[in-house]
Design goal:
The structure is a homodimer. The N and C termini of chain A lie far apart (about 60 Å). In chain A, strand 1 and strand 2 form a beta hairpin. With about 200 residues, chain A is an alpha+beta fold. In chain A, strands 1, 2, 3, 4, 5 and 6 form a 6-stranded antiparallel beta sheet that branches. Helices cover about 30% and strands about 20% of the residues of chain A. Strand 4 of chain A pairs antiparallel with strand 1 of chain B, so a sheet runs across the interface.
Chain lengths: ~200, ~200
């Protein structure tokens, strides 16, 4: 019985390894096609489902977790998250050169984690002061995608949101609130986040 | 006189351009040699001086601002900063694969900005809740560099700190406190920051 279970586990393990390699190859190809950096399967973000978010039809960009950093922020209140804003090569170049509006092809990714105190860090510092990235909230991953023709009615930007499992986590009604909310930042092409040098 | 000044400025400008190109080439070569991504001179961080920090002899790693994100944090209290932790390819690979100890060649960069409220974001959210990256404090940039032979007496890690102008901003006495402070994280090869997936 134990032997049979071992053999079954070995078989399942081999299948899983094949599946994992297949998924990795698919990701590398997709990433290369889009000119992104890296192509590994991202921990915590299965893009295997590859479902498009509603309204703007945006899918998760392979390799986004390797994009360069734009800036960081903490949203207190109900969100209570700590976040990183990343950009693909087109977005980062535009940010660094001060190009406005952002050119087509620019993509900005926002990753949020729950804002949690770190007991371990506090001990090292000798006082309670350290807050770090915890688990992923439902609004884990957002994208702003610049395509001045496709998204002409929303300032040239498409918006999407995904949870940590790679599934869209904002319905059409919610995504339609994105652009009106971004309108105060019109002078910076509707992008709130400034580049942190 | 104005003509002469113009010619002089043109000459100085040409020299500066050549110097800039030379520096860029040096950075690209260094970056390529170290397997880093990108090689452009980083805004806000002149590496032209390229001074080594004391004790461990570490210089600013060209292209570090393009490295992938490890995680984010907020240090309240006296520091009152918001920070991003980045890793070079060796460090990121080790983090994602759970490799401990980190292999030689792993470099972790920590960038800190002053923690400031964002009035603009608060208006968009309709309540005071948003904190973003402000100006650069004196402890702007830190590196942890893994070299198990060179830094054998400090757990295989060398430590350095630079200000936004690219100058070392921690003296020998201060840098010698880095390793003892990191000792509580011995089980994770003296690295406090965990990877945020």
């Amino acid at each position: 019985m134990l032997g049979a279970r071992k053999r079954t586990l070995k078989y399942v393990g081999a299948l899983a390894a094949i599946a994992s390699i297949t998924i990795s190859i698919v990701h590398i190809s997709e990433s290369a096609a889009q000119g992104g950096k890296g192509g590994q399967l991202q921990p915590g973000t299965s893009t295997a489902s590859n479902k498009a978010a509603p309204v703007f039809g945006i899918k998760i960009f392979p390799g986004y977790r390797d994009w360069a950093l734009v800036s960081v922020a903490h949203e207190a209140g109900e969100l209570n998250d700590i976040r990183a804003i990343l950009g693909n090569d087109v977005a980062i170049k535009a940010y660094r050169e001060g190009t406005l509006p952002f050119p087509d092809g620019a993509v900005i990714a926002r990753i949020a984690w729950k804002y949690v105190p770190s007991e371990e860090n506090d001990k090292a510092f000798g006082r309670p002061q350290s807050f770090v990235a915890g688990s992923a909230p439902d609004w884990y991953l957002q994208f702003m995608v610049k395509d001045s023709k496709k998204y002409a009615t929303t300032g040239g930007w498409g918006f999407a949101q995904f949870n940590k499992d790679g599934n869209p986590s904002a319905d059409a009604a919610k995504l339609e609130t994105c652009f009106p909310c971004h309108e105060p930042a019109k002078a910076r092409d509707f992008v709130f986040t400034r580049y942190a040098p």
